[in-house]
Amino acid sequence: MISHDVRGPISNAVLALKMINDNEFDPQETQAILKDLVISLDETTYTLTEIMLWIDNSSHQKLCTANLIQTDLLPIISSVLQIYNSQIKQKNLALNYQINRASVKITTDPNALKVIIRNILSNAIKFTHPEGSITIKILENDSLVELHITDTGIGMSPDQITRLYRQSLKTTLGTSKEGGFGIGLKLSLHYLKLINAELKIESTPGIGSTFCLIVNR
Fold it and tell me: Has residue 28 been placed in a domain?
């Protein structure tokens, strides 16, 4: 879990700092990268705290409880995008943000939802080839909100999707050799139950995947 959610951002930060130290960027690019690094490392600190709380609950065999409140979905999405802005730029991915609303209210635990969205987006970036694209859009009705995250990545077979839901899918390297152990997605599936949300996956090998997160208003 720590390798997935902490080691990755720190490794990216180390690589970026080495490139800055080697004067591979102009001053304007350096300032932009440093700004991204501050956001990423700040979020890593938050993530480590969340992981430790989760471990503490598990070790004492306590049931985690969700704090379901009225929440605006859009700031959560924006904060997650800031975390991965550096990785999106490094792989030169096109980000299509198809949301025209100023606010989208839902009932959820903001921290749990953020973990879920982070891991979906992280995997979309990980398994999308450089120069590919990721599309984020929202569909709504009176009782539900659907958040769709679609990538043009390597995709999954029906068997892989089934094993993912069963938490038996073995992780693989990303398209730029990104590592990870699949723990983050397992944690996300746990959080889905806590916040009464649902995750639907549609995917075609070689074409890409769509993760549809369904939450209550």
Answer: no
DSSP string computed for 100-117 = --S--EEEE-HHHHHHHH
CATH number reported for the structural domain that contains residue 190 in this entry = 3.30.565.10
Establish if 52 belongs to a structural domain. Answer: no
* Euclidean distance between CA atoms 13 and 41, whole angstroms: 8
Q: Is residue 32 part of a domain?
A: no
pLDDT digits (tens, 9 = 90+) for 47-58: 675 666 556 555
Say what the pLDDT of residue 163 is. Answer: 84
| Most confident region among 28-42, 47-61, 111-125, 160-174 by mean pLDDT | 111-125
pTM score, whole prediction: 0.71
Residue 56 lies in a domain: no
Number of domains, the chain: 1
Strands 105-108 and 133-140: unpaired
Percent share of the chain, pLDDT over 70: 77
Whether residue 115 contacts residue 187, with contact meaning beta carbons closer than 8 Å, is answered with: yes
CA 184, CA 165: separation in Å to the nearest integer? 13
CA atoms within 13 A on the CB side of 75: 7
Contact (Cβ atoms closer than 8 angstroms) between residue 178 and residue 113 = no
- Domain range spanning residue 196? 66-216
